[in-house]
Design goal:
Shape of chain A: globular
Helix content of chain A: 25-40%
Largest sheet of chain A: 9 strands, mixed
Order of helices and strands of chain A: EHEHEHEHEHEHEHEEEEEEEHHE
CATH topology of the largest domain in chain A: Dihydrodipicolinate Reductase, domain 2
Mean pLDDT of chain A: 93
Number of strands of chain A: 15
Strand order of the largest sheet of chain A: 14-13-12-11-7-10-9-8-15
Distance between the termini of chain A: 40 Å
CATH class of the largest domain in chain A: Alpha Beta
Oligomer: homotetramer
CATH architecture of the largest domain in chain A: 2-Layer Sandwich
């Protein structure tokens, strides 16, 4: 293997150009070839990157001798076949979220990769953002105290997906962030939703249950008039609000909560809980491109033979929750144990 | 009966002063007496309203000869006994939300009032706000088209309630607004939540299912570091966002949605749905005090012998949904039919 | 003198009810009488405060034997005559900002009060807010470092004043806050503006020059479609933004600035100044009503024979700057030395 | 001349990459060569655009036979010499704002271009944005009515310029937008400011006077803790707020103002002006890249021999106002007639 990981990219739609740009921008990797279908897509690749080969034949990527790894940036329904063939041909795999369309597919890929001593990395981009890293640090350093809830709203207008519902499209972000931040794993999930346009749910509400005090909730919607990216994380000691839709001060930490000792009121109907409402603090967050960090991490995991934090097993954990959501949707929102 | 409804008020805690102030400010009613317990509460009433009697004896209100109506502004667990005695003594009843602690109590009060030809009004203040009235108008005039979803976030720090959980405290607002705006009634509800502080849930997520395309969802939380009052209402033709936490332009109507005809993409994984993204419009909302309007409406319903829109039956509909939520909470978030 | 300062209030228009309410709410004072003209205004007083006398005869206030102090809440053009008569009759004076219509008037009142050993307090309410107090503390503790600029935007729709332009109406707030916060006094001011509606300027821009590094600037406007209350204070060490139009986190302190050492770029045209961009911090600000604090302070200054920080001399300093602004407006915005 | 304008670009600092990218993205032009100084800058060009020549010799651009036009993206102090040589060598000139360092330079370049039948376009990018175009339309269609004021705040932290003060850096945006939107020309300007860091003013306030009812004002600052891009435009019929720092709904049109008929109050000190406060409306603004539109317009002006709206004369008008600002700064903010 050369000192640079040689990468072939499959797909150049909405996210593909970001993958190509970031793998091109780092020293540890080099994009050799991009496979897309259709003349206009081919021309788009050629115009953007004259130095990169454009091909419409997937085998130019999947069976190529001159590639170390393959980045799969296609609809989720195609992930399994493409990743399997890439692994079979000895290539490391970087694959878009969600990892696969089913638990069985994910397990098969993991097993195959382990047998072939190859890496799988699932593109859970958010866990490479400076904001999520800062939240992780605040949790690890016990600034927030015991976690009470993870509550996220991720809504906007479009983009409707072809092959999956809004949960499979948007909730993998929240599932993977929650999986990264909170050590404990959910024991059950529930999901309710509605499909207004085609057969797939375009609005959905997911609840994740833990055996401890934690509760998780995601509100995902493709038919919102405004874009909202708001996550609230309540802790025993402090609480935080992460607004990812603003340019600055995305993360705000509140010295707010309730004090342990409280006494009941007499005449009034509110419980006389003693609240603590102190300063708010927005830690400086470095402006880094998460995907660049992740691309570099992928290369370094291959070069250094390390297991990525967002490996196939991480991808599988998210798929398990997504499958459970689908089952809950069919089951009138009933609880589905993981 | 005099030309002014003579009112006695029970309770002068968080909300009571607003009730006294608004019933005092209108020409159609007059607050004669306020009952509270405790010397400091009595003094507070006397200082604020030297011209109003303050008493610590509930019977000075419930059995008084010189009162036409009683406003009950006490914890929900006391509503039934107080309202029953007031009705028994021939008084009309204005009662805080939620109406009662159970369906059975609500039904008994409704029956009693009907027998005695007395009015019950449940204080669903929000349906008297200019904003909700404007939304109602937009729906009635079919500006929004068929409703897709009613999605509300109502979170803040405190006030913890003594006798009920966060659903019984905050969700009555959303249930009553949704009940007022959307003609169709929910067929089932689900609720999940967690109790972090005392035995009562302080964070909860409620989903309301309809037999049509509509879905409702409320996010209520007493442990949020920030106050959020955000309702999104998606319609086939237009969508709106109501931010009640800002001073101006609370209501925004978006000419956004999806067009009927759409075709599938080829290479990309998003469905090629054609979106419509047009102007945003914030209709002028008059600054009125909802509670004053409601107080005047209560008096006029009594004087004109009219049935209030927020009568006992409206209160009962909300109690039914609250009881169903409690049942769902106990039942691991399972669907509870109404 | 009794243990409570007995106060008569003249005027019950926009601000008067706040004056009456706050002087009524404190233990150290008591509002005995309010003078207004017109039957409807008299009735408004009687309805709001049955226990307070309402009169249409100014002499019931100015010449009353049973009053210790007079609060003058009338248009600025009447301040001098009313305050003079009150002082002549041995009453302490609390007067709305701006103090008087001219320097000469202010000086005469100060002299008269000193001769009669009476207090004058000019209602510079903002210096009693928790936010301004917190800023003062940050400056006094050298958190901000040397002040670079005080830049304020105070714009909204209305209320047009009868007798003064927008500078005399809105800029006294900024002049008095700046006077309170920054030890150094301006040496000159400039003002430009335009009168679109009647003869008085409804939009104006004021610059305050200091002999040091400080520069002050106020943007005041009665014809703005939105209400903006935004003050930026730049210091050598830290900078702050005070947004008074929001409910929470009004004050934000930024660990931002430039570092001393910098070197020039080569090809690029920006100076390679090294910036420091750190955390943002919103200190908890107590919710207090400034006017109540000020009312209590007025009473305590009388009872304890102390000179208020916002005495006649403070009022005069602001009048000097307002007169200089008027002169600058007439003089095409030219610099007017103080 | 070929069907594509062949362009050489001088400078590849902060703005240069945007110029190269946009002239590369259009069909009517082609970037042949970029001149920069320094090996690292040369390598940056080569990495970003392998197909474009990179040179450190300015004459490879200025004297090249294979170029139709030159884009000058260097510090303002170099504009004159570079533009002059380009014009002398028969090349059309696209030059960054501000056009030149002095009126005399601008006039010489205009004369030279006219003699040689060449185009000059000054990069007033903002007048090509969809937002400014929409405002222009609202003014031209008399939606706003007679303009009362143009009030802009353009502040942020950095970037300090090497060769000019903050007015020359930031105010050209406002001067050129105002020049584009408002038919009438200012008759005089004033400027005040302060230099806290090096000898150049880093904070400044500019007032533009018109012979009519219009007044213009710009607040520019390199030392603000937050980025603000806020322009308010008051008209007799409607008023608008343009917030360029947000992602959506940048432009808001308010049906607000004052009605002609008003009467004076009696007791109160506010003038009883009757206000009109109606709906707010945010027209849909297309997402277009202004610089791409401008690049294409430059090419079409050359190919079609048209005079650009942002030609040398437009550039000169802005330079005249900038020179007047400098004169006013030296003259204690005194009025400088244009």
């Amino acid at each position: 293997m050369s000192d640079k990981i040689r990468i072939g990219v499959i797909g150049y739609g909405y996210w593909g150009p970001n993958i190509v740009r970031n793998f091109s921008s780092i020293d540890s990797a080099k994009v050799i070839r991009v496979a897309v279908s259709g003349e206009s897509a081919l021309n788009r690749v050629r115009k953007d990157y004259p130095q990169i080969e454009a091909t419409s034949d997937l085998n130019d990527i999947l069976c190529a001798k001159d590639l170390d790894a393959v980045a799969i940036v296609t609809p989720v329904s195609t992930h399994f076949e493409l990743a399997k063939k890439a692994l079979m041909n000895g290539k490391h795999v970087f694959v878009e979220k969600p990892f696969t369309r089913s638990i069985a597919q994910a397990e098969e890929l993991i097993e195959l990769a382990e047998k072939k001593h190859l890496k799988i990395m699932v593109d859970h981009t958010f866990i490479f953002t400076s904001t999520v890293r800062k939240i992780k640090q605040l949790i690890d350093e016990d600034v927030l105290g015991a976690i009470y809830y993870y509550d996220s709203i991720r809504v906007n207008l479009g983009l409707f997906q072809n092959d999956v519902n809004v949960i499979w499209d948007l909730a993998p972000h929240d599932f993977s962030i929650m999986d990264f931040l909170i050590k404990e794993r959910p024991v059950a999930v529930q999901a309710s939703g509605k499909a207004h346009v085609n057969g797939k749910e375009n609005i959905a509400f997911v609840t994740a249950h833990f055996s401890s005090n934690v509760i998780g909730h995601f509100n995902v919607n493709w038919l919102s008039p405004v874009k909202v990216r708001l996550t609230m994380l309540g802790g025993e000691k402090k609480m935080l609000v992460w607004n990812d839709a603003v340019a600055d001060e995305k993360l705000r930490v509140y010295d707010k909560g309730i004090n342990g000792n409280h006494h009941e009121g007499t005449d009034d109907h509110e419980l006389r809980v003693s609240y603590r409402s102190g300063d708010m603090w927005a830690p400086k967050i470095k402006h880094t491109e998460a995907l660049q960090l992740e691309a570099d991490y992928f290369a370094s995991c291959i070069l250094g033979d390390k297991t990525p934090v967002n490996d196939g097993h991480a991808g599988l954990r998210i798929i398990k929750m997504l499958e459970a959501c689908d089952q809950s949707l069919k089951n009138q929102g009933g609880l589905v144990y993981l």
